[in-house]
Every structure is written in C-alpha cells, then in structure tokens.
Amino acid sequence: MAEFLSLAEGIEAVLSDGASVAMEGFTHLIPHAAGHEAIRQGRKRLTLIRMTPDLVYDQMIGMGCAERLIFSWGGNPGVGSLHRLRDAVENGWPNRLELEEHSHAAMANAYEAGAANLPFAVFRGYKGVDLPKVNPKIRSVTCPYTGEVLATVPALRPDAAIIHALKADREGNVLLEGIVGVQKEAVLAATRSLVTVEEIVDDFGERNANAVILPSWTVTAIAHVPGGAYPSYAHGYYKRGNDFYIAWDKIARERDTFAAWIKANVLEQGPEAFARYAAPARQAA
Amino acid sequence: MAEFLSLAEGIEAVLSDGASVAMEGFTHLIPHAAGHEAIRQGRKRLTLIRMTPDLVYDQMIGMGCAERLIFSWGGNPGVGSLHRLRDAVENGWPNRLELEEHSHAAMANAYEAGAANLPFAVFRGYKGVDLPKVNPKIRSVTCPYTGEVLATVPALRPDAAIIHALKADREGNVLLEGIVGVQKEAVLAATRSLVTVEEIVDDFGERNANAVILPSWTVTAIAHVPGGAYPSYAHGYYKRGNDFYIAWDKIARERDTFAAWIKANVLEQGPEAFARYAAPARQAA
Amino acid sequence: MSHTHTEMMTVAAARLLTNDDVCFVGIGAPSAACNLARLTHAPKITLIYESGTLSTRPSVLPLSIGDGELCDTALTTVSVPEMFRYWLQGGRITIGFLGGAQIDRFANLNTTVVGPYDAPKVRLPGGGGAPEIASNCGQIFITMAMGTRAFVDSLPFITSFGHGAGKGDREKLGLRTRGPTKVITDLCVLEPDPETSELTVVSLHPGVTREQVEAGCGWTLRFAADLAETPAPTAQELDVLRELHARTRKAHGVAA
Amino acid sequence: MSHTHTEMMTVAAARLLTNDDVCFVGIGAPSAACNLARLTHAPKITLIYESGTLSTRPSVLPLSIGDGELCDTALTTVSVPEMFRYWLQGGRITIGFLGGAQIDRFANLNTTVVGPYDAPKVRLPGGGGAPEIASNCGQIFITMAMGTRAFVDSLPFITSFGHGAGKGDREKLGLRTRGPTKVITDLCVLEPDPETSELTVVSLHPGVTREQVEAGCGWTLRFAADLAETPAPTAQELDVLRELHARTRKAHGVAA
C-alpha cells in the first residue's frame, strides 16, 4: 500500500545516490517539484531515464546529479537546446555524462516490457539508421515464423519511478488522465515509485470504467504537491508555463545565470513554492 | 471511414467463406446477433478465432460453419461443456474441426502483436506443460540480453473481426466501455471489421479523455443491432441472460434439440429478434 | 451450526488469505473463498479477475469471470492483454487459484483432454489462463472436490505445472514462484511435502476419516505425521458465506 | 496579398493533404500545415500527435507535442506505448511529417549530432520518434528551411532513413513504405527523382530564382525538366492561416 509522505521524505524513501530513476511525463505532468527536491537533497551518480528529458533533467544534470542519461529526445520543446545537457555532453561540465540513446519507439517499448516483466521488447525499427552503430544495447531477434529480423531493446526496470498525477484517493490509488504518456508503465516497471499529486480526494467518485488508475499496492509513496508539475501542466488544474520554457533558454545558456537561478528557485525554496502555480487556474476551473 | 450497413449487408461485406474471423467478447459484449446472421447466410469453412469460444461458436460449429478453431478456453462458463464443440472434436459431427489451442496469455499477446503489426509475440509462458507438444505454432526465442528462453506465438491477423459495442457516433467512431476484453486489438489486427452496436448517437458527449474508442477509419462497417449481444450483456443496457446459458446445456446436448432450436431461433428469425432483450433494461436504466 | 463439505472447503480456503494478498480469482469456490475472506478477516484483500477488473469488491458472487458486477465495483478495468502482460506476467499477483478436472500427486493439473489429444475420449474446455497463472503467481491454491476420477495417479495431459515429477522440478525450469502450496478439498487440506513436494494430507475436515479421504484419491495418499483437524467453520463465517450466497441467488436467480 | 516564405511553405504543404489522410504531426510547420488543410480543403483529415491524441482538432496551434488543447479536442488519447505500437508501427498512418537539422540529397535526415558521436561539436536533441516515423508511415513529407548548413552534401549521422544512397535502398532493407516523397522548403518543393531517388526541385515558390535555391543547398542541385512555379497562396489560405496564428498568439501569448 502506498504511504503518504512529504516530498522530502518521499525522495529519501525512493531515490538513493547511484540509483536509476525514470522521472517521466510527456509534456503533461512532468514532476518538476520532485526534481527540485532531488537537487536539494544533493543526489549524485544517478542514471536519469526519460523519453523526453527537458528542463527538470537539464537542471539536475547542471547540478551534477547525473552520471548517465537514457533517452530518446533531449531538447527544450519548441524552443531549442538544453544548454546544461549540451555543456555536460560537449564539455564534461559539471561532470561527464554518459549517453544511452534510443528512439521514442524503443523507449516506449522498453517501458512496456519492464511493466510486463519481460527482459526485452521487440519492435520494427532502426531500419537504415546510425543509432545501432553507437548503442550496443540495440540488438535484434529473428521471428521464428517469418524469418524477419526485428529490433530489440532491453526492458527498462528503473530502481525508482517518479511521476506527477492529478489525484490520489485516501487509499493511495492514483488517477491519471489526459496525456498519460508512459507514466503508468514507468511505475509498474520500477522497483520503487513516488507519485506527487495535485489533490488528495476521499474517493474518485463517478468515473469511466476504464479510467487509468495505478492501484495503491503498485505505488511506494505519494506526496501532495499542488502545482508540482509547473512549468509543465496538470490538465484541468493549470496550464503549461510556455513563457518559462522560453525563458529557460536564456537562464540555462550560461553556467552562472543557471547557478543563480537554481540557488534562488530551488536551493532556497521548498515544495510549497509550487503551490502558487496551482492556485489561479484552480479558481478559474 | 466506417460504413453504416444492415447486419446482413455487414456480414456480407466482411465475412466470406473460408475466411478467418475473430468474433470476440470476454463474457461482456459477445456478438451473438452477428453469429446468427453468419449462420443464416450459410458461411462455410471458417477459421473461428476466440479466446473463449462459447455459445455463439457452439452454434456456428454445430451448423457446420467452421473447419478450424483457434482458442484458449472452450466451455459454457459456469455451466460445463460446449456439446456441439465436443461433438465436432470427439465425433467429427457435422464435420471435423481442427483445433489450434493456446493459453489465454498467448492469445491475448497474439492479438496485441497483430494490432501492433508484429509477426509474433514474446511472453513468459508454457513452462512445464504439454500444450507445446501438440501445437507446433508454440515456439521460442532467446533474449539477446539475458539468454532467457521465452515462449512465442504468431500474431493473429484475422481476415475479419466482428465485435459488439455500446455506441457508435454518426461519424462511425465506436465506444467500448467496461470489460473491454481483446476487442480493440481484434479489430486493429484484422483486415476488415464489423461492429454491431446498441445505439447510434450524434456524438459521445462528455467522456473520459482516455475513453476506449475505435476511430471510424479503423472500422469497416457498423450495424445497429440493439440487444445484439444477448445472452451476453451490454453494460448499462441489459444484463447477462444467465438462465439461457444454463438452458443451452440441455438444448445443445442432442443434435436434434439443437437443430430445432436453431431453426426456430436463428433460421426463421432476423436481427430484429434481439431488440426485445435490449428493451426492458433500457427502460429500467 | 452444521455445515456442508463445500462450505468447509470455502471457509478453509478463505482463512488462508490476508489483507496483503493480491488474488487472481477464478469462478466458483475460489470466488466464494476470496469474497468470504474480504467480508470477514481480510477486508483489504485485493481481488483481480482475468476479465480485467482490478481491486473489485462485488456484493454478490459473479456467475462468470466477466460479470458487470465485477466491473461496477472495481477500482478500474483494464484490457485483457494488459491483464496478462502487466498484471499476471508482471508478477503482481501473490496468490492464484486453480482447479481442474484432474490433479496428480505433485499438483499438476489437467483441464484439457481425457484420452489422446488427437482422438479425445472427453474434450475438456482447455487451459485458459491456467498455464501462466501456475507459473507467474507467487503461490497457487488449488480447490477441488475429491474423487478417484479427479485425483489420479497419472495425468493424460499436463495443462498447468505444479511440482512436475517432484522437488526441484520448478527450479529446473527456471521458475522462481512457489507453485501449489495448498490443495483445499471438500474433505481435507493437502500440502506438498517439504522434502519431496508430494501432496500430503495436513488436516482432515471435522468428521472426515482417513479412509474417506483415501477412497477419494487415485494414488496411495500420504498423511502428515502431525495430522490436524481443520477447525470447523465458525458461526460468523457460515453466516457471512450464506448471506453472500443468498444475495447472489437473489441477484442472479441461481447460485454461483 | 503578399506572403512570407514560411507562409508559402506551410500553404504548399497543406495543399498536399486530403480528407483521407491520417497524419502523424510534428510541432511547428507540419502542425500549421495540417491544421490549415483541416480548416480549408480537408475538413475530415485525421491528425495524430505522438503524445497519444487521436483525431484531434485544435482551434489553436499547440506549442508542444502534448498541449492540453490537443487532448481536449481529440477523439480520445492513448498511452505513448500504444501510440507507437498500435498506431505508428500498426501501419495506420498515411503521412508522417519530419524535419531536421540536416538533410542530404537522398532525404536522409540528421537530428542527432554534428561532429563525432562520442565527441560532438554540436549535440542535437536526437531522433525522438523520427527513425520509426520514417519507416512506418505510408509516405513522408519533410518541411525545412533551406540553407547550406541544413542541406548538406554528406550527413555526419543518419537519424532517419530516407532513400539511403539512392533508388532501391529502401527495398533492400525490407521497407514497404514509400519514404520521403516531398520536401517542402521556404523556397521550393523537391521530390525524389523517379529513376535515382535524388531530390530534385519540381517547383519554385513565386518570385524565387534557381540561383537563390542553389545558394541554399550544399550539393549541386538538380531541377526537373518541367520545373513549375508553386501557385501563390490564395487570399483564403492566407486568411485562415493568419487567423490560426492570431488565435494561437492570443491563447499562448506567443506564436507557434
């Protein structure tokens, strides 16, 4: 059964130095507050896993939390580069960052295989491209019926999955809705999981019979962090902070502006700083 | 885009003699009316595919529609045997029926692989059991990372999928809800598909963002057949005819009682005969 | 309060379940046992039916694996491919229930065929979920009524794997799950012997003799040295079970 | 009505789309083109974004692949594994849009790295969905602004496969899809030559000269014998496109 913890306790409970962690979110529901807490707690030598590492991983990489990144697209969506990621890869600052690079299809299949407790996934991919030349984890199997050679990827089985969701009920069940990405698979594939939520409700009430729900017994810990996805968004709660994505390009471009921003907005803050993003749209809703 | 047809036209459009067909439904939403129409149209030499062949396949087998059955559990749920299926397998009446037998896990994975346009599926199964000795389609692959040997099953790619669903909208999109089984996968895996529905609505209105919907362009034909799942049920429309499942045991036990029942209830009826099952619960709902 | 053999079987199975269990429930005795546990000592037990219903809490017993009641009272309902991939194969089930037409002394089960596969004497329904339930759940509880046609010396077909030909066979196949740990019958409870994995009677239901049990088994049955008597159903257990059946009859017009 | 190069590119791409198409849409020019087509001549076109939104009908352009607007106006939204398995790999997409940092004469694309992979000069975002979009969609439309840093003689890294080293290379890999059939730029439209698969300019946008196009390309560019002029955007096309951008600006506070 999921335990209700503070965000600080939750990060302590699921994320240790040297662990592999999937902090997933596909534009929607990216767990920014949890990433900030990991920075505050000074996590080191993490293997960061995510299909679309964006600002929160840029921040963690820039603060030296990571030694490895497993990913398929690393950019600031609609804006450009992740400068901290590039500084780590191109210049080894603040430390070398090893890359394990896949395609989206491969990553999605790898999470799916992890959730299904399989050691690998099979898919039709990577035809004619260079990525298999630089990633020895990309291999193949032959179909025992047709002889077709198909691509494989090892299942992702992170030590921890950290996601942000809309609601938990008092029993610790977690409701996802809207663009659900690979978050359910990430939690089911991981050994431990932390879910930050916008709201804790007595029960979910009337809902679609096939609602996307993680039962309490599949989740390690839940922390109530309203606004915790900002500048990503929580459907029905608040909108994406598009301005901040644009602003990040400038903040992250130089090491010193980055460090100053982290000091003022992460190190000297707590999870309650996110509440202000949750408030206005909630009133509007 | 899905075409709106009568049931008779729909069966003509998607199901030809000698075809492979998946008429799926997992207790809920079994396409009985469509099966009766196939019997009326005298379809022959079909390969019937279903995880849980029950009464409607018993009827089709007893009427000589099928030469082959791909399945994982063939019984009258909670009641006992399917006597027409047994008569075909044990005595070759009215014709020999070839069996291709799998487990539920294998069938579910095979539909999933078909929907995903893969030639086969990998799963962890059949450990220590006899089915692989009698089904040469059960093979294996070796994980290219761990060396583990895993079971495989060829993808199911039926010529036709026939399912019953709750609602279609005027554009031909199809809404499934409740126990959804493998119906979405069956339609996506098949070359052609027919969906019988309880209701045609202008639009689906307010719904969960992640509702289970087959877009119009994935469906070949839609026929409006209220009550068309009876004695199976349609969630929110009418309940399962448990009495009929029990009564079927006696009807199907002997060839002549079976033939008489089919004559009176299938051959001399049309799809409109199912409407009476839809009516009462609808009023109650 | 007097009770039937079937009630004793259901109660004995129910008592083995705890709040921490996640059960993959079959129709019939397993469903009654799991829901009895939920309505008595294990209110937080998690019940999953292979039709896709997660954490379901039916007020009446389902007649089929996919009754609307299971869906209406579930936390949520997933597709069948997801059920078999993420939930069963995913290793999230602590206890799977199985039954069968036939069982052997190592708790292997047959639900496929009597006689040769290609020329069957009796064609049974087949394995359904059983082969992978048997291998992927943490442990397996088997519920079956005894009788010499069911408890047989040798199976014509192994539909689901128990302990193979004895101790260590599961490990040889790479299975990390425990397999059948309890067989709950209408007359007694059996467990695999810790040394040999052969099914051994560990407790007789009240009023049942060794001879009755032996007469219901097609092989020479072993009894534990410290053979116990299964505690009789309590009045509360029987009340709750009978109320459950009464509600079920009222809802369905038939018993589940 | 005068227009910009980018407007011309968007309009030219939009015109290639029909009511029967199922498009896998990327952010930026493809999104604008697909929605312009939907709001003009192809109201029944099906738009899919890789975030999982099926048959979406946004009233404003999304800033990201996963904007709430896409989900709010979608028929339904599926998980990302399902999107890549059932929908993209499932072969249900008729047209995929791609762009990239670099393209070569056979429409192979690089969005991974400039310089050696292990010691990059510029680390680009990576392939994302591109490798499998390029192989699994019925055909690929590429939208890119011309320039010698983008249209290069040789790619340092092939992120997604176009026509390889020329005609027949797709077939050799077992690919049954058509690959890139159109490259729509700010200056012209290119198509693979039917004999060689080398990209060939088939139409120049109004007012653009051969020399301008040649100056924006890093290889010696071929021109079709029957080189056409791209019809200028109509007033209606420009109106609808500009209204779409205006609504987008109003909704987001920025242009998409």
Which features characterize this protein?
heterotetramer; A: 285 residues; alpha/beta; Glutaconate Coenzyme A-transferase; 2 domains; three-stranded antiparallel sheet; 10 helices; 13 strands; 23% strand; globular; disordered C terminus; C: 256 residues; eight-stranded mixed sheet; two-stranded antiparallel sheet; 8 helices; 14 strands; 21% strand
Describe the fold and architecture.
The complex is a heterotetramer, with two copies of chain A (285 residues) and two copies of chain C (256 residues). In chain A, helix 3 links the parallel strand 3 (46-50) and strand 4 (66-71). In chain A, the strands form two sheets. In chain A, strands 1, 2, 3, 4, 5, 9, 10, 11, 12 and 13 form a ten-stranded mixed beta sheet that branches. Chain A has helices at residues 7-14, 32-40, 55-62, 83-91, 104-115, 131-134, 183-189, 242-253, 255-267, 275-284, and strands at residues 3-4, 20-23, 46-50, 66-71, 98-101, 120-123, 139-142, 149-154, 160-169, 174-176, 192-201, 212-214, 221-224. The model of chain A is unreliable at 281-285 (pLDDT under 50). Helices cover 32% and strands 23% of the residues of chain A. Chain A has two domains: 3-102 and 160-282, Glutaconate Coenzyme A-transferase, CATH 3.40.1080.10; 104-154, no CATH class. In chain A, helix 2 (32-40) runs parallel beside helix 3 (55-62) and helix 3 crosses helix 4. With 256 residues, chain C is α/β, with parallel strands linked by helices. Chain C has a single domain (5-250), classed as Glutaconate Coenzyme A-transferase (3-Layer(aba) Sandwich), CATH 3.40.1080.10. Chain C is built from eight helices and 14 strands. In chain C, the strands form four sheets. Chain C has an eight-stranded mixed beta sheet, sandwiched between helices. Chain C has a two-stranded antiparallel sheet with strand order 3-4. In chain C, strands 6-7 form a two-stranded antiparallel sheet. In chain C, helix 1 (5-15) packs across helix 2. The two termini of chain C are 22 Å apart. The mean pLDDT of chain C is 95. At the B-C interface, helix 4, helix 5 and helix 8 of B face helix 3, helix 4, strand 9 and helix 5 of C.
